[in-house]
C-alpha cells in the first residue's frame, strides 16, 4: 500500500499545482480584462488593484512583543514593530501575488513596509522567459509612498528593490541630500492633501501615469497605505484579498488604521456589496481569495 502512495504522490502534487495555477490564471485574466476596460475609458490615473493577505480577524502582520513581553497599547499600535518572517498565507497564495505583480506596471508599498520587510518587489515565481506573459518583462516598477523620506533614509544602501520611485512631499524633496538615499531611485514630488496632512493620492496617481507611464498599479500595503486608498474608494478599481485560516488576535496588526480611517466629512468610507460590480471567492491552497471589481 505504501509503495502505491509513493508512486501516486508526484501525480497528486502535479494535480494540486495544476489546480492552483488554473485558479491563479482565472484571477489574473479577470483583472486583465478590467484593466482593458479602464484603458478604453481613457482615465487620467492608473488602474488600481488593492491586494494583501489577512487573517480571519483582519490582521496583516504579527506584532513583536517587547523584551518584557508586555501587551500595552503602545506595543499593539500601528507603529509597533512587526515580524517580516511570519508566513501568513499559503505558498499558493504567495505565488498568486507574484502572478499579480506580473500583470501590473507598478507595485506600491508604504515606507514602513519597505523598511521592515525590505522586499525586492519583483515577480520571481510566475511565468518564464519562454512563456508568453502579459507584460514584456513580467516585472513591475517598485513605488514607495514615504511622505517624509524617513523610512527610505533609514534603509539606505541596504534597499534590495531597484529602480524605485519614491513618492514624498514637495517640501521634503526640496531639502533631501541624494547621498542619504539608496542608489538607483527616483524622487516623485507630490502635493500634500491639506485635509489629511498626507500625500494627495489622486495627484500622485496622475503623476505616475503621466511621468512614468504606469497604466496599472498594484497596492500591497501596509496598513497606512491601505487605509489611505480605502478612504477614497473612487480611486480603487479592484480588490484581491487573501484570507488565511489563522487568528492573530491581540498579537496582530490590523489591516486598516480604523482610528483615523475617515478624515474629513467628504470621505466615503463604507464599502458594501452594492459597491461592487462583481465579486467572488476562490479557494487557493488553504486560503480563500476574494476578488471584487468596484463600481466607479
Automatic annotation (TrEMBL):
<dbReference type="Pfam" id="PF01872">
    <property type="entry name" value="RibD_C"/>
</dbReference>
<keyword id="KW-0560">Oxidoreductase</keyword>
<feature type="domain" description="Bacterial bifunctional deaminase-reductase C-terminal">
    <location>
        <begin position="46"/>
        <end position="248"/>
    </location>
</feature>
<dbReference type="InterPro" id="IPR024072">
    <property type="entry name" value="DHFR-like_dom_sf"/>
</dbReference>
<dbReference type="GO" id="GO:0008703">
    <property type="term" value="F:5-amino-6-(5-phosphoribosylamino)uracil reductase activity"/>
</dbReference>
<dbReference type="InterPro" id="IPR002734">
    <property type="entry name" value="RibDG_C"/>
</dbReference>
<dbReference type="GO" id="GO:0009231">
    <property type="term" value="P:riboflavin biosynthetic process"/>
</dbReference>
<protein>
    <submittedName>
        <fullName>Diamino-6-ribosylamino-4(3H)-pyrimidinone 5'-phosphate reductase</fullName>
    </submittedName>
</protein>
<keyword id="KW-0521">NADP</keyword>
<keyword id="KW-0732">Signal</keyword>
<comment type="pathway">
    <text>Cofactor biosynthesis; riboflavin biosynthesis.</text>
</comment>
<dbReference type="InterPro" id="IPR050765">
    <property type="entry name" value="Riboflavin_Biosynth_HTPR"/>
</dbReference>
<feature type="signal peptide">
    <location>
        <begin position="1"/>
        <end position="19"/>
    </location>
</feature>
Amino acid at each position: 500500500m505504501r509503495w502505491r502512495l509513493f508512486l501516486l504522490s508526484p501525480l497528486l502534487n502535479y494535480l494540486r499545482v495544476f489546480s492552483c495555477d488554473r485558479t491563479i490564471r482565472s484571477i489574473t485574466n479577470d483583472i486583465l480584462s478590467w484593466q482593458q476596460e479602464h484603458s478604453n475609458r481613457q482615465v487620467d490615473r492608473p488602474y488600481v488593484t488593492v491586494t494583501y493577505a489577512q487573517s480571519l480577524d483582519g490582521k496583516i502582520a504579527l506584532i513583536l512583543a517587547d523584551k518584557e513581553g508586555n501587551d500595552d497599547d503602545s506595543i499593539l499600535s500601528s507603529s509597533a514593530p512587526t515580524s517580516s518572517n511570519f508566513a501568513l498565507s499559503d505558498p499558493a497564495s504567495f505565488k498568486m501575488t507574484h502572478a499579480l505583480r506580473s500583470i501590473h506596471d507598478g507595485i506600491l508599498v508604504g515606507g514602513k513596509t519597505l523598511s521592515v520587510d525590505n522586499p525586492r518587489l519583483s515577480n520571481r515565481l510566475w511565468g518564464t522567459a519562454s512563456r508568453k506573459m502579459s507584460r514584456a518583462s513580467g516585472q513591475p516598477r517598485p513605488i514607495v509612498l514615504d511622505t517624509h523620506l524617513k523610512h527610505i533614509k533609514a534603509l539606505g544602501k541596504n534597499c534590495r528593490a531597484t529602480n524605485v520611485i519614491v513618492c514624498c512631499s514637495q517640501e521634503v524633496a526640496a531639502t533631501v541630500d541624494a547621498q542619504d538615499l539608496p542608489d538607483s531611485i527616483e524622487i516623485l514630488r507630490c502635493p500634500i492633501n491639506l485635509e489629511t496632512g498626507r500625500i494627495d493620492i489622486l495627484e500622485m496617481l496622475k503623476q505616475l501615469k503621466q511621468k512614468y507611464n504606469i497604466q496599472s498599479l498594484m497596492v500591497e500595503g501596509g496598513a497606512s497605505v491601505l487605509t489611505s486608498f480605502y478612504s477614497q474608494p473612487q480611486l480603487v478599481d479592484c480588490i484581491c484579498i487573501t484570507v488565511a485560516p489563522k487568528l492573530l488576535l491581540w498579537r496582530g496588526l490590523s489591516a486598516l488604521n480604523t482610528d483615523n480611517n475617515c478624515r474629513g466629512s467628504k470621505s466615503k468610507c463604507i464599502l458594501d456589496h452594492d459597491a461592487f460590480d462583481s465579486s467572488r471567492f476562490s479557494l487557493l491552497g488553504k486560503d480563500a481569495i476574494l476578488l471584487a471589481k468596484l463600481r466607479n
